[in-house]
Amino acid sequence: MRGDTRTLIPFVAMVTCIALAAGCQSTSEQTGSVDGTTIPWATVPAAQSGGGAAPHPPDPPPPTDPNVGPGSPGPPTPTTPGPTISGIPFFPHTALVTPPVPGVTASGVHVERHDGFDRIVYDFGGTYAPGWRAEYVAEATQRGRETATRINGRSILQIYFFDTDSSAESGIAAYNGPNPLSDPAAYSVVEVHLTPNYERGTQSFVGLRTDYPQFQVTTLTEPTRIAVDIHD
């Protein structure tokens, strides 16, 4: 009986080692982003970022002279240097004030199905688009929160919009449609989450049906919008 026990111990140890090796291999091959495991960065499309489309500020009005009536030429340009500062002459001039750039708010989002890709379109009131960064993340964690939001899908793409404002600051009505948003005609996009503006930033999390598909972010015009194309 003792001999059988000595024979059984090495056999059990060998089975245990095989099981542990199989378990380690399974863990290293996990790629899910929904359950918080490690993302295989070597096979994931790289992050993309861009400056959006800033508005062209209006030309400043020409300097006016209260002693000159409408339609009359303005004051002549001085040709003689004025007083000097530290021995350096300067020419008097009228300061040009550039008006501040108005803020924007995420006012709309929808999903479109195209041949070979799904397109997510973000609107910011149609005036101009903010800067952005798009990248895959392991979990959907909103700024200012400690717990992640559950996103349906096999992978999560985050689009972060910079320098956004609340509706009270920008005067643009914020998006108030379905959140998360889904479209039965979409192939890759399962759902789109859009977070409220927080500390001049807005996040969007996109749950995708497959593992880390290729994507492309572009700025559309007339009106100005940001489009995220998810390829099949």
TrEMBL record:
<keyword id="KW-0732">Signal</keyword>
<feature type="domain" description="AMIN-like">
    <location>
        <begin position="106"/>
        <end position="231"/>
    </location>
</feature>
<feature type="compositionally biased region" description="Pro residues">
    <location>
        <begin position="72"/>
        <end position="81"/>
    </location>
</feature>
<dbReference type="InterPro" id="IPR056303">
    <property type="entry name" value="AMIN-like"/>
</dbReference>
<feature type="region of interest" description="Disordered">
    <location>
        <begin position="28"/>
        <end position="91"/>
    </location>
</feature>
<feature type="signal peptide">
    <location>
        <begin position="1"/>
        <end position="21"/>
    </location>
</feature>
<dbReference type="Pfam" id="PF24837">
    <property type="entry name" value="AMIN-like"/>
</dbReference>
<feature type="compositionally biased region" description="Pro residues">
    <location>
        <begin position="55"/>
        <end position="65"/>
    </location>
</feature>
<protein>
    <recommendedName>
        <fullName>AMIN-like domain-containing protein</fullName>
    </recommendedName>
</protein>
